[in-house]
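Our collaborator T.R. sent over the components below with a one-line note: 'Predict the complex.' Nothing else. No constraints on interfaces, no templates requested, no preferences about which chain binds where. So this is a plain run: every listed entity goes in together, and whatever single assembly comes back becomes the starting point for the next discussion.
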Amino acid sequence: MYRQARKGEKMVRGYPVHDPERCIGCGACSNVCPTDSINVDRKENKIVWIHNVARCIRCCYCVDNCPTGALSVGDEYSMIADSLDKLFIVHELDSARCTSCRDYVPYSINVISYLSDKALKVDLKCERCRLGNVLKVIEKVRKL
Amino acid sequence: MVIKVLEECKIPLNKIVKLREDTILIDVDKHDLRDVIKCLVLEKGLHFSTCIGVDYSGLREGELALVYVLTRPRVKLMLRVLISENEEAPHVHDILPAAEWCENEAYDLLGLKTSLPIAERFILHWGVPSDVRPLRKDFRHDMKIHSLASCKLIEKEGFVEVDPHHPFFYEHEDFLIKVVGNRIVDVLYIGSYINRGIEKVGESRLKIEQVPFIAERICGICGFTHSTAYCQAVESALNIDVPERARFERALMLELERIESHLLLLALIAYAIGLRDIFLELLRYRELVMNACDVLVGNRKMYGLNVIGGVRYGFTVEQVRSVRELVKKLKDVERALERLSESENLKKLKDVGTLPREDAHKLGAVGPVARASGIDYDVRRDLSYAAYEMVDFDVPIMDSGDTYARIIIRCEETIQSIRIIEQVLSREELVNGELRTEYYPHPGRTGIGMTEAPRGENVHFVITGHDSKLYRWKVRAPTYANLAVLRTILIGESPKNAPIIIASLDPCLSCTDRLVKVRKW
Amino acid sequence: MKILYLNLGGCNGCDIELLAGVVRVVEKIGRELPSPDHGIRSRSYDITIVTGPGTLGNLCRIVRDLERIGGEVDLGHVIVLGSCACGGGIWYDSYMVCGGWDMFLRELISRGFRIRYRSVTYVTGCPVRPEDVEKVLVQLLHSYPNLISSLT
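Returned assembly:
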């Protein structure tokens, strides 16, 4: 919570700080943001995390809902600029790849270390490969 | 008790649906409505809160409804009148002037049919095309109507503008008065400058758990009471019990907010009557409250604390300790308030802008305005919420109903609030226990939440919808009810007193944001 | 020095923090700031302070003001306070709201008004903190010494 982010005497619930080393690009923050100021754009081989600080209302609801702890409450409240373009925080993350077809999946590469931290077996497949497997199983069952 | 009252007013008992222990919904026939309202409000003395227009077409096909909300101690009563699309909507505001604004608002925003001579547009009076009915379910919340608006002027010949506020502290609204000799003879209030389409955004873009953040931003002075009222409405609709710790935290923040709001108003009043030193002193005390909020939630305003079913943060022992220090310093505000209430300049306001008790009841005045006129109604005590059942406090009442009484009531309430805060800060429950209850948002449930905002009773009405969104959300801010008394208290007064009389209502227009012509009744 | 203060339909949060900030500025520079205009009454201003997301009602109010003075205004140095005025805040896509100062300005320009300004400073936060208001105002006054010297 925001208390952990406090340093020194000033106690401020600042705008959220994003750690690109831990973000898996799941988009939970952009889903819960009441102002839609966070956007997670899924490009071809990149995931772009964009925060429009101009519109951010410092509710830090995204921090509550971040599954990996990549977001934390900052101790910087204000951001002053002479143009709106300077009020964007943009982080580019590399997309992870499907283990079978090497296509990009809609998560960043941090998802592998995140899942292995959770002691889950990492078998990252894209939707198509997974679906393909399922269809094959169904096909087999039908033939029986 | 309440059942007996309903029987006496000839309401068939089989039409009564008990939604919750304290919430009753009754389907009333359109033709009986006037008799029922007349009996309940004018004879039995129930308090009329508001009325709400609902477009039910998303839940039940092709039906509209008007819901009238009445209260008495420990009971919230909803009278629902179902209307079909081509039918004329009912009205009661000729017998009960308090209903005028909310009925006209429903006619305007929902496009209900009426034969009444209301202004063509009651709220959207900026030359907006007549097919723009924002609260209809087929209207999109992000349809920009700026390019459609012609910005035509409202006729206001013969009126003079009044500016009741401190020069550096300003919201746009027009209070217009007509003066003959040295007496005010007519009053016109034009608002709706600050209408931001909150209800529609809450019903369409936002999810049920995101709405507390927009509810908080309805008002920058009393925002937390709005988000509490909203959460209580949903909690009542979905039958969620709030943990004790959350109740105490809410009560603490609500009272801090009340002190902050009252001190701001009293400071501005002190400035207006020429007591500049008290103005600065009260603002300094107000900073203490802001610091306390900063310590507790990390922001001076917009606490972001409420979620449905409880609160987000738990206060720690250290935080509570440092707030206790601040409150100790805050206690000295009593002396400044005493100096304000004993000043000769304030005593000049006795018998100025008097609001008699019967008028206050008929016009639906709430909060300090009603209590200054002798109406003993405080939501904290009569429809208890948060932790107010578990603390001890008095509700100050005065009978004279003049501007002086309205200011003194706020001084006394500030002192009572400090008393509540001291009790809450000493409770163990504030720092120990569960923070929130999990819930599932069932669609189609109706709930109503009320809080005592610094300015009076604050009503939030919700109907939950599908996809964990709201179907209908209606906010009735206290100033909305209190501005109806403008005409009564201003006519016959000297125009030089008009600013301070208006200021004594503590109008908060970002909450109200409506257009109203205060007419004769 | 002429100050224009436009409340474009905010919730009052920023306005009260502005008041607190201005009290600090007055203490710091030791001179009173002149009381501002709340609507556009003159053709040129030195400082314009903007709060609020730009509601339809306030758009119409400004349109009327501009029509009255001839459709042309110089706003001087514009200070945009708060999330609402910077990017529209939580109601950025509401039907009643323009969505921030930039969109508000675009709406005015599309109605044929000529609006000039020297600089814009965006101060974010919901609400803004008085420290920031103080910082921006003091910085502005110091970088344009003729503004301070015009104060009494």
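Summary for T.R.: Residues 127-143 of chain A form the longest helix (17 residues).
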